[in-house]
Structures are given as C-alpha cells and as structure tokens.
Amino acid sequence: MFADEMGPVRWRKSSRSNGNGGNNCVEVAFVPTGVAVRDSKDPSGPALLFTRPEWSAFAGGVRDGEFDEPA
Fold it and tell me: At CA 69, angle to CA 36 and CA 20, rounded to 5?
C-alpha cells in the first residue's frame, strides 16, 4: 500500500533522527490494522504494514539488542 492511500494518519520519527540530518530515517504510524512504516525521504511512496504482534516482537528484539552489530 502507498502511504498517501492510507488517509490521515500521524506519522512519527525518532527524536534521535534529528542528529543525522533528520530525513534519513523511517517513520511509523499506528493505524487500525497495525503499524505502518515508510521511508521519510519518500512520504508518498510505499509503506510496510505490520500487525501489532509483529511490531511488538520487532520492538522487543530492538530492546534486547537482537539487531546490534557484533563487536
């Protein structure tokens, strides 16, 4: 689905993204069917849609360091 087809949603990006130019990041929106993710440089481009359990599992992996680069 394209982000501009989703209707009015509130897109957010991390407050930490502003230190890197602010536009080289992804944005998320909580929608009735789950969580949408899009590229901030292409706001009318495609968005990935995740169910709430999928998003919760991803966020848990981030918190647990599952995606950290090996030392």
Answer: 60
Q: Is 38 helix (H, G, I), strand (E, B) or coil?
A: strand
Higher-pLDDT residue of 7, 63: 63
> Which two structure tokens, joined as six digits, stand for 53?
């359990």
Rounded CA separation 47/66 (Å): 24
- pTM value? 0.75
Other Cβ atoms within 10 Å of 47 Cβ, number? 25
Is the backbone of residue 65 left (phi > 0), alpha (psi -120 to 50) or beta? left
Residue 6's pLDDT is 67
Domain ranges of the chain: 3-63
Nearest to 52 by CA among 26, 67, 38, 32: 32
